[in-house]
Amino acid sequence: MMKEKTFEKERAFLSPYAKKSEETKGRAREEEPCEMRTEFQRDRDRIIYSKAFLRLKNKTQVFFAPDGDHYMSRLTHTLDVSQIARSIARCLSLNEDLTEAIALGHDLGHTPFGHIGERVLNSLCPTGFRHSEQSLRVVDKLEKDGKGLNLTFEVRDGIVNHTKSGNPATLEGVVVSLADRIAYINHDIEDAIRAGVISESDLPPSVQVFGKSTSDRIGTAISDIVAESEGKPYVRMSAEKKEALEDLRGFMFEHVYEHANKLIQESAERMLRALYTYFTEAPEELPALYGETAKEDVPRAVCDYLSSMSDRYAIGVFNGLFVPREGVV
Fold first, then answer.
1. How far lies 164's CA from each of 39, 55, 207, 249, in Å?
2. For a pLDDT cut of 70, what percent of the chain falls above it?
3. Which of helix, strand or coil describes residue 113?
């Protein structure tokens, strides 16, 4: 089979610490193998063609409905993470296919309106809401009309553990977690400067160790990880760069994520709270896919529905429920 050539290449050229495709722990439901693609390649393709992936193009990264075409959306962020993660994986001779699949799937469960949406649902749902866990729920239970994508253990593990607090089982998963932070911090800086929320001179002095431009900062971060991790059984940044990245992350949370477009943030929060209340009181109006879950757990079903929405769709549903239409009494 053509796939065997990939296995041979991986055995010959990948790091001893890489997860080889033929070593996968497999899927929850057994399937007939593909003659051409490895299981990680199949996972990547399933994610790309999923409905949840397509919806990312209309989900906010940081700035909702910005004036301009060059702000990050959740989709462009995901592609950015994939590119950075693959660059690191290639330099460290790790499995690029596994890395790419994790990166493309890591934010599938993210809410509309960025982290505002996540914060609102987490405050409302009795069992809490975390986008990493919801991303796993999407690929396990919600895609393909409730059948799920039946992804491999390694991809699922990388998706649910991609946040800073996660503990991925593979080095490829660690790479995606680092790439996610590098991507969102640096390109969110670009967007915040473009929006006039901050200026380059506002950035903390520690950022200078990465360079002055977005390209410099990302390139320096990648080079640092490679230099620190090459030939090692771990993937990490040097202590100096890690501390500087944490300073930058803290700065962004203090000056951008909690303050950008305050009026719009408040409107989005009120909108999601109203939708959550409405559907928890009328779960019979949920689409059929979520109605089955509602029979046992209404708050979770409502979170499934609301987190699946793009920004535009959420606004449309809100308007249809709460905004009077001309000629309708």
1. 27, 24, 19, 11
2. 93
3. coil
Q: What are phi and psi of 32, to 5 degrees?
A: -65, 125
Whether 162 shows a pLDDT value over 80: the answer reads yes
CATH of the domain spanning 36-260, picked from 1.10.3210.10, 3.90.480.20, 1.20.1290.10, 1.20.1250.20 = 1.10.3210.10
The closest of 74, 161, 173, 156 to 114, measured between CA atoms, is: 74
Rounded CA separation 111/204 (Å): 30
| Domain residue spans of the chain | 36-260
Give the per-residue SS3 of 197-264.
CCCHHHCCHHHHHCCCCHHHHHHHHHHHHHHHHCCCCCCCCCHHHHHHHHHHHHHHHHHHHCCCCHHH
> CA 258, CA 250: separation in Å to the nearest integer?
11
Q: Which two tokens stand for residue 263?
A: 């009026």
Separation between Cα atoms, residue 100 and residue 120, nearest integer Å: 30
Residue of higher predicted confidence among 13 and 326: 13
